[in-house]
Amino acid sequence: MKHLLTLATLALSAHAYWLMGVEDFITTERIDPIVNPGKISSHVHSVLGGSNFRFNTNTASLRQSQCTSIPIPQDKSNYWFPHLYFQWANNSFTSLDGGAVIDTPGKTTAFPDDFRMLSGTPTLRTYDSTSYAQQAVTFLCLNFNGQSTKWNSLPTTSCPSGIRAQINFPSCWDGKNVDSADHKSHVAFLSGGPDSGTCSDPKYPVTLPRIFIEVYWSSQSFDAVRSQAKNSTQPFVYSSGDPTGYGYHADFVNGWDAGVLQKACDGCHCNPYGDPTCCANAGIFTLNQGQSCRITKSIDEQTTGTLLKLPGNNPVQPEGKTAIVYPDTNPPELISPVYAYTGNAPTATGQVVDGSAATDANLVARPSVPALSISSVSVYSSASSARAAPKATPVGQPASPPAVQPVVFPAAPSPVSPPAAPPVASPATSPYSGSSPGSNPPHKVNIASPPPSDTSAGSTSSDSSTSEYDECEERPRRKRPNLKGNKHRRAAFPQGGRIHLNTRFTND
């Protein structure tokens, strides 16, 4: 599944932005190192960026990532947001395919080391039109052959070309704190709202790159079975149990290589049509077109496909009252070590690094097991996150690995029928192949042997040609984009969606 990443810079007199293809989420799991550092998050997020995404994350560890899903390899930041599901009438859930666009437009100061922030509030189930924070969240009901409509909530109508969830981050900073207790108080929105005005408040005088994340969801794939939903008017639910969209949110942790983002903010204005080649040729950054980057699962839990319930303890809580965050009384076990990889399967190299002195040993862990064969390494959680990767010489498989209870999941429904009575699916007999990071619980990880000669971010083959996109156009183009047309049209995504990261930096 191929997605689009767009990084853009804007000047007052000219518009320039960078457009590149991104392969996929690096993972879809209950991890949130900002809100829930060192432990399993309350709900599922889909994650983009550097491979060193762990329960604890900081800039130093992200810069050491084995790879990044972002085609500018100097950007190993992480961006994440809740996953979206379709709720069936029998109260089971099926995950949607989709992806994101990050649109960052303010003289601009690059994010400092360890900078992080959160936009949105997961527990909101009402809308306040006077709140800049809530104005920052919008949804487009996309119709590439007609008129796209804008909503403050998840659309209550079918959308022929899918749903685009949109969220602005604050772009004014206090200039001192890289984080705050609520992950919001160190930053503020512009004077005119989420996407207009200046940083005129003396408490927040520093203008940061404005991050605007757009996530495209293939909601149209469920149009044929909409009548079989729990709520046919609006059948979609976020992983936090939010059927309204008012609780939509997103997180960011800076992982840019030192000096690169500031250099780009100051100097990458050479092409107004989205071709990043001139900036790369000028030495501002490099490009890895067609970059693939994924990590193996950290948590023994299925998060995609069809599920009996949302992962964690997330009952659907409707509009009207602030949602309650319920504790997970039966948390899943952890899986360790975690591997990053750029091909179709993980290798013995590329172990993911935690970003804090606090390690996975602080988390609920399964006892250590003997070393396993590299050809089929069973990865169980260990009390030590520093356990070495398997050696190249096979050392044999243990006679009896720890027993794993099978997990019951319903069969994934066809787009033309609701899920039938759920059969038992045994995770132990469904090894994780690495080709689908969000698939069955990875009790086994197939480690490729021998490992490729180069598993770095630049080792994947590049696309033979580079498509140019524009926020005003509908489809990828080989020539300069036509800037005319429906302003809500971006590159049309195929079945499975696209990821778009559209990051703009405005210099005043």
Describe the protein's architecture and organization.
The protein has one domain (1-323, 454-508). Strands 3-4-5-18-9 form a five-stranded antiparallel sheet, with no helix packed on it. It has a five-stranded antiparallel sheet with strand order 8-16-12-10-11. The chain is mostly beta strands and 508 residues long. The longest helix is centred in the middle third of the chain and has 8 residues, at 260-267. The protein is built from four helices and 24 strands. Strand 6 and strand 7 form a beta hairpin. Residues 426-442, 454-467 have a biased composition (Low complexity).
Summary keywords:
508 residues, DUF1996 domain-containing protein, signal, mainly beta, DUF1996, five-stranded antiparallel beta sheet, disordered C terminus
Percent range for helical residues?
Answer: under 10%
Secondary-structure-derived class? mainly beta
| Average residue-wise pLDDT | 71
Strands of the widest sheet, in order across it, are: 3-4-5-18-9
Instruction: Please report which band the strand proportion falls in: under 5%, 5-15%, 15-25%, 25-35%, 35-45% or over 45%.
Output: 15-25%
Number of domains: 1
Low-confidence region ranges: 1-16, 357-417, 421-508
Shape field: globular
Question: Could you tell me the radius of gyration in angstroms?
Answer: 22 Å
Q: Report the sheet with the most strands, covering strand number, pairing sense and barrel closure.
A: 5 strands, antiparallel
Query: Care to count the β-strands?
Result: 24
Region (Disordered): 413-508
Biased composition (Pro residues): 413-425
Organism: Laccaria amethystina LaAM-08-1
Domain DUF1996: 32-256
